[in-house]
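It is worth pausing here to work through a concrete case rather than discussing structure prediction in the abstract. The textbook approach is simple: state the sequence, then state the predicted structure, then interpret. We follow exactly that order.
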Amino acid sequence: MDITATTLPDYERPPIAEVACGVRFEPIKGFTLPHSGLYWNTIRTEFPECQHAEPLLDPGMSVDLKTGFPLPRIWFLAPEKSALIQLQTNCFFYNWRKLTEDDTYPRFQVISRRFGELFSGLNSFLQSSDLPRAAPTLYELTYVNHIPRGEGWSSMEDLGNLLVDVKWNSTKARFLPVPTGISWQARFPMSSDAGALNVRLVQATRTPDSITGLRLELQAVGNAKERSDKEMNNWFALAHEWIVRGFEDLTELRVQQEIWRKTSASK
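Step two, the predicted structure:
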C-alpha cells in the first residue's frame, strides 16, 4: 500500500504514542490454531516473538466454547517490540508503538505501506493453505496521542488551553471543586459516507515510563464496500486526512506551534 502525500498539518514532535492499521473480515472458514503457527513461520524472521492477547469481540459475536474461536488473538512482535502484528480469525492489525524516547514516529506512509504488504502476505499464506482469502468488512485506523502534564495543561482546570472543546468553568460560586479526572468522547461522520471518526479523551499512564497524562485517541472506522486493494488504499488515505485534520481542529494552535512544532505539510 502506497499513499501519495497531500498537504496536511505536520509536527516535528508529535505526541503520537501508537498507530494501528487494521482490517476486520468475515471469519476465515477452516482457519484453525495450527494455521496461526504456520503463518508465523512466514514472518518469524521479522517477528520472532509471539504472545496471546485478549480477543477482540465484535458486537453480537459469541465464543465457541468447543473450539475457542474467535479465541485466541495472537501478537507477533518485532525484536524491539515497537512493531507488532495482531491476528485473529476475523481481523488483522499492524501496530507501531513508541516505547522509548528514542523511538521516532516512522510516518503514516511507512506504516500503511507495511500494513498493506503484511496483509497481502497473509492472503498469500491463506491461498497457499487452500483457505479462502480474508474478505474485508471493516477498515480501522487509530492514532493514540499521549500528552503529559506540563505540555499545554497542568490540571483539569486549564484543559481549555490544550483542547478547544473541553474546559472547566471555575468560579467562586460553584459548589463542585475542580475535577481530578476526565472522560470525554465524540463521534463525527466522515465525508462521502466513508465512516466515522471517533474521538476519546481520558487520563492514562504511559506504559514505558509510567508518566501520567492525557490519552487522546482518534479512530477512523469505515465499512469495506468493493473489498479491493484500491478501495482500501483510498480509504486509509482519507482516514489519515480526517485524523490529522481532526487533531488540528481539536487542539490549540499555541500548543501545536510551541510544543509539537507544527509545520505546513505531512510526509
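Step three, interpretation. Confidence is low (pLDDT under 50) at residues 1-5. The chain has four helices and eleven strands.
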